[in-house]
Write a structure and sequence with these properties.
The chain is α+β, with helices and mostly antiparallel strands. It has 14 helices and 19 strands. The protein has an eight-stranded mixed sheet with strand order 1-4-3-2-5-8-7-9, with helices on both faces. It comes from Dreissena polymorpha (Zebra mussel). Pathway: Protein modification; protein glycosylation. This is Alpha-1,3-mannosyl-glycoprotein 4-beta-N-acetylglucosaminyltransferase A. Keywords: Glycosyltransferase, Membrane, Transferase, Transmembrane, Transmembrane helix. InterPro entries: Glyco_transf_54, MGAT4, MGAT4_A/B/C_C.
């Protein structure tokens, strides 16, 4: 028994040391990634989020070890009672040791314990195998920029899964495939053969994506789910619907917790959607460009739980809220309530609450995903929801550009500032510029530019384009007005070019108008590619 205690103590110490090592390693790796091209602030926020995720993982591991110790003490207590009952007498040193462990167990019960998944799903206590996929087809890819989760179930008439996966994979460039992870979650815990069937089909259809780690398939164990036959019926829903929505909440919980350690962002989809080409870079750029680090949710579709992007580091808190009320309401309602509880004040009115939620729940337009299925996962239900925003062309395109301050002599309209266009938050919209007006981009610090792209006008205002406007740059060390012309807007309202190798570090890049156009002007896209920019 003494050896068992020593082994347990060593296990706890080893676990803490391992978590500390992982934490320090992540710090050292993050320090090596410090950029030199001006995007220090973005990298700092990313590093901060990764450290936060590492700390949460470390705390969770420590809690798991404490729970293991509690369970061990409990078993020792049982041994004590059984031994006393059988022998009817004190069994010497062994009895003393066991009584000591029993006292430790009593002390543990008297201390405070933080909630965990076992608080909300108590049937999982003592069954660690219930927290692991019962089926897994994976090449174990970690460190993805975006993890995409796709729950799927057996449908009676038609399956949209292969169409959905094909749409996602075909919309990725080769570089984007290295940064993405797609996890198909077969939510049929009582039908493992079906999960194997889905895995075999996807492996046959997308062999390269499975072998290189882009695509993986998992299925949860039946033991993860509690008794689903005695659920309280609420909101006038039938017993079948309550069972369906409760299981769906637990499906999302398992998938999100499994996926959170695999990448920086997590996106929730469904198994019957199609994606717009270029969706990955748009999502990543839009997420990276959010200067307010307090955001909770980015939406790339208006429908249900489709196209919802989260920071992986925040998933444990969100999932815990889902688990608290997984028997009570559907997942999209719970998400609304979570945001309301997080940012709304009971002392303020509904309008104030709406504005506060808008600060942490940001919507990208137009939608990147469209719902194509008509057969719901709830048997007998027809689902004809369509995202009306999906077919619209984007009014602007976001890119992660080098750090810079953007100013202009043009008169902007309402909230459409030039700086917002540069960071990919909105368009720049101005009244007709006069000859000599400029839009100046001052890089901090100066950068070596490989190429540039300026796109004027958009789908809603096709004639609001720059005409007879030059693109000029000022090299570091140059004085006065020694700008060098490196391009100009064409008849389509686009200025795009590569920078000659002879050009060194660039201090400023500007647009200079030579005439006064008949219409207002819009800049819908700005992309400055630096020579040191990571193409991944």
């Amino acid at each position: 028994m003494g050896r068992m205690r020593a082994n347990l103590k060593n296990l706890v110490i080893s676990g803490i040391v391992a978590c500390s090592f992982i934490f320090l390693w992540m710090i050292s790796v993050s320090k090596q990634d410090v950029p030199t091209d001006g995007r220090v602030e973005d990298k700092y926020l990313e590093m901060q989020a990764r450290l936060e995720m590492a700390e949460q993982t470390s705390r969770q591991r420590f809690t798991d070890l404490q729970m293991l110790r509690n369970q061990f003490n409990f078993l020792v207590g049982l041994v004590t009672n059984n031994s006393t009952v059988r022998n009817g007498t004190d069994s010497g040193p062994f009895s003393n040791l066991v009584n000591e462990q029993g006292q430790n167990f009593s002390d543990q019960l008297a201390s405070l314990h933080l909630p965990s998944i076992f608080t909300y799903l108590p049937h999982l206590t003592g069954h660690p195998e219930s927290l692991k996929p019962v089926y897994k087809l994976s090449n174990n890819r970690f460190g993805a920029s975006i993890v995409i989760g796709i729950p799927t179930i057996r449908r009676d008439k038609v399956s949209y899964l292969s169409q959905t996966v094909a749409s996602l994979i075909s919309g990725l460039s080769r570089e984007e495939q290295d940064m993405c992870l797609i996890i198909v979650f077969v939510a049929e815990p009582w039908d493992k053969p079906y999960a194997v069937e889905v895995g075999d089909e996807l492996k046959q259809t997308f062999p390269d994506s499975v072998s290189n780690g882009l695509l993986e398939v998992i299925s949860p164990p039946a033991e993860f789910y509690p008794d689903m036959d005695n659920l309280k019926q609420t909101f006038g829903d039938t017993k079948e619907r309550v069972r369906w929505r409760t299981k769906q909440n637990l499906d999302f919980t398992f998938l999100m917790l499994y996926a959170r350690t695999r990448g920086f962002y997590y996106v929730q989809l469904e198994d019957d959607v199609i994606a717009k080409p270029g969706y990955f870079s748009i999502m990543k750029t839009y997420a990276d460009s959010q200067k307010n680090s307090d955001w909770v949710l980015l939406e790339f579709s208006t429908l249900g739980f489709i196209g919802k992007l989260f920071k992986s580091s925040q998933i444990p808190v969100i999932v815990e809220f889902f688990l608290m009320f997984h028997r009570d309401k559907p997942i999209d309602w719970l998400l609304d309530h979570f945001l309301n509880v997080k940012v709304c004040s009971p002392e303020k009115d509904k309008k104030h609450c709406t504005n506060m939620i808008a600060e942490v729940r940001k919507r990208f337009k137009p939608s990147l995903f469209q719902h194509v299925g008509t057969q719901s996962s709830l048997k007998g239900k027809t689902q004809k929801l369509k995202d009306r925003d999906f077919g619209k062309q984007a009014i602007f395109r976001a890119h992660v550009n080098p750090n810079a301050v953007v100013t202009t002599t043009m008169k902007h309209y309402q909230k459409y500032f030039a700086q917002k266009a540069y960071v990919g938050e909105d368009i720049f919209w101005a009244t007709p510029p006069k000859p000599g007006d400029t839009l100046d981009i001052e890089f901090k610090p100066p950068v070596a530019i490989e190429s540039f792209l300026f796109r004027s006008g958009n789908a809603d205002h096709k004639d609001d384009k720059f005409k007879d406007t030059d693109v000029e740059l000022l090299e570091e060390g140059s004085t006065g007005d020694n700008y060098v012309k490196v391009g100009a807007f064409n008849d389509e309202g686009i200025a795009s070019n590569s920078i000659p190798e002879s050009i060194g570090l660039v201090k400023k890049l500007r647009l200079k108008c030579n005439i006064e156009p008949a219409n207002w002007v819009i800049i819908s896209e700005i992309h400055i590619v630096t020579k040191k920019e990571d193409k991944r």
